[in-house]
Amino acid sequence: MDTPLHFAGISGSLRKGSYNTMLLKAAAELLPENTTMDILPIEDLPLYNADHDLPAAQARPEIVQGFMDAIGKADALVIASPEYNYSIPGGLKNAIDWASRGEHSPLLRKPVALMGATPGMWGTVRMQLAFQAVFLFLDMKAVLKPEILIADAAKKFDASGRLLDEKAKELISHKLQNLRELVLAGKLQYH
Length: 191
Ligand SMILES: Cc1cc2nc3c(=O)[nH]c(=O)nc-3n(C[C@H](O)[C@H](O)[C@H](O)COP(=O)(O)O)c2cc1C
Fold this sequence. Notes:
6-stranded parallel β-sheet, single chain
């Protein structure tokens, strides 16, 4: 189908030389046809505080509302994240926590593809498992296969941050295609 779709990408790492931001940028170059992707920054979101959220506050902080609106406009999310202490990095979890609130949370039932890179050996598998609980609570539609677990990341990207691993690129393309198909199947079902 030639329906244009738009994905929103989020990196779980805030540092400049992040392998996961490189991975997300590699994904942006491997999108299926008729699919675009923006990367949404999360580094300036304040820490979640219910006093600054609805209904306690009259409006959410502008930056938070903008982040939530951008997720709402996207057909699907692509998240590339490291694993911190066997789990989801705090900055990313904070962003998810803000976006998860309210009966109109833009994360509810949102299709999502998760991937991760680490210089370590286990490819972020524990972070990805921890995310399954978040997907379950928010009824997010995770594309589970193929899994993108980039281990030994220092050897997988060149000095300019380009992904060198051809097998990984193939898997990422496949996963993004599956994400597109999941979105389109949902549109057929619900619209
Ligand atoms: C607080 C912290 C906890 C970490 N915990 C893990 C971990 O549990 N598993 C792992 O493979 N790497 C762990 N690392 C190493 C990260 O994988 C590594 O710093 C990686 O480069 C971060 O991703 P980035 O390159 O996208 O910033 C940890 C790093 C930090 C800063």
